[in-house]
Each structure stands twice: as structure tokens, then as C-alpha cells.
Amino acid sequence: MFVVKNGYPNALSYSWQQGSDEQVLEQKEKFLTATNNLHATADNVNKLKRGFEMKCEKSYGSDTAALEKLMSCISGFSDVTSDFREGLKRAEQTLCKAAVFPKIHPVIAEFASSSHIITEDQLYMLEVEDPWLQEIVKVVDEVIVPLKQLLHQSIYDSVLKISITEMTEYLEKLALTCSYNQLGGLLLDKRLRSLVTFLSGITQWSIRDKFARLTQICLILSVERLSEVEEYTSSSAKCCLSITEIKQCLRLRNDFKKDDINNIVCD
């Protein structure tokens, strides 16, 4: 717990990026070990609590007053378990901020530096080979996937969830700062589908709900006519976007008139 509370995240973040000398490797190993130990300790304390409860019920089941007193004492184990689990959550967040976010943010940020008003030839070329998407896959493979061998499965799953949530929120933020034509919207939709497919391959749970908002943003950005938006919103029972957000997305299209966008009706 001491290593997690005081280890750091600034010093950890700095050291994690500095290479693989002996001191850095030792610091990483200590932090990962402490994180795994938090999970194991919380689990063991919880098992100990259940064991005491079962033994007390068996030994003092007929003595209600004594059993209540014992159970009251044993309940304190729940607070201990909660403390360790809170420490584990902090450790997972610290690990992501130190090891994952500094690597994945610059790659995703490249999205905003390129034009999304593209030609059919450009769309075809990027469908064949997309350097931006390839770089994201590379960073995930090099930074996140190796943690699977170093962390308890549930901790690794949590790190994945935190990282994927950060990726989707950051990409959404960037996507809403760019301008598009229909082909640019279609490219974003294709990129998102490829990213979901890749990330689904390294997780043991469905990640599509994490991409629900981005998926609908892509759909709005790739429509051919504004009437398609009205048809979609009237038929979709699971629209994650408000009317204001839908119109915000449509205003990113360079080929739609603002007056026409303001006049659409989304039920």
C-alpha cells in the first residue's frame, strides 16, 4: 500500500518513460508487485471474513446474542477489504496515467492534424493502409498487451477498460473539432470499426458500449442527406446523442447549410 500511495504518480510517470535501466525496472517491478498484492490481500481478507462467519454460525448458531456480537466484530473485515480495493483502484489509475496515456495520447492526437475533407482516391488509399490506425495498434500491442503477463487478470481487465474509455473520450473530443465531407465521415466510421474489431480481440468482454457515442457520431457525419438523420433518430430507440449534439455534428460537415441543419426535426 505504501508503494502505491507514495509511488507517485509523477515520479512513476517520469521513470516509466525513461527507458529500461536497472533502477527504472526495479521501480516498475515494485509498483506492479504492490498492485497485484493489493488485489490478493483484498481477496484473502474477504475469504477470511466469510470463513469466520461460517465458523461462528456453526458454533454459535443457537446463541443469538453471542452470534450478533461476533458478527459485529467480523464486519470490520469489510472496511479493511474496502480500503485495499480503493487502493487497488488508485493503483490502476496511476498505472494508466503513467504507462499508457502518455503513449496513446500523442498517437490519437494525430487525428486532428490531418484533413477529413478527402477525395475518393484518398479514401481508397487509407482503406488499404492507414498509418494512423496502424500506429494505435502498435502502441496498444507494445504498451498495454505486455501488462497481461505482469498483472492479475482482473487488474489487466480494469487497465484495459480505463485505457479504452480514455481513448474513446479523447477521440470523441478531437473528432468534434474537425471539419468533414461525407467521405471523411465514412473514413472515420471505417477506422472506428477497425479499432473496435482490434480491441475486441484483446478483451474478454464486449467493448461496443464504450464506442456507442462515437459510433453514432460517425453515422451522423457520414450521412448523404439530412433527411437520413431524421429517419435515423425517429427509428432508433438507443440514440446516445441529444438533438443539440446531433446538430453540432452536422455543422462539422462542410457541405451542409446551417439553415438546413437548424430546420431538421429529430424526434
Alpha-beta content class: mainly alpha
Report mean pLDDT, rounded to a whole number: 87
Number of DSSP helices? 13
Radius of gyration: 25 Å
**Which percent range describes the beta-strand content?**
under 5%
SSE string, helices as H and strands as E: HHHHHHHHHHHHH
**Major sheet summary line:** none
- Judging from the principal axes of the Cα atoms, what is the shape? elongated
Low-confidence stretches: 6-10
- Per DSSP E runs of 2 or more residues, the count of β-strands stands at 0
Termini separation comes to 52 Å
Helix content: over 70%
Summarize the entry for a quick read.
73% of the residues lie in helices and 0% in strands. By secondary structure, it is mainly alpha-helical.
Tell me what the structure shows.
- With 267 residues, the chain is mainly alpha-helical.
- It has 13 helices and no strands.
- The chain has helices spanning 2-6, 10-16, 22-60, 64-74, 76-109, 120-128, 131-144, 153-175, 182-200, 212-221, 226-235, 243-250, 258-263.
- The radius of gyration is 25 Å and the shape is elongated.
- The termini are far apart.
Strand-helix topology:
Elements: H1 2-6, H2 10-16, H3 22-60, H4 64-74, H5 76-109, H6 120-128, H7 131-144, H8 153-175, H9 182-200, H10 212-221, H11 226-235, H12 243-250, H13 258-263
Helix pairs in contact: 2-5, 3-4, 3-5, 5-7, 5-8, 6-9, 9-10
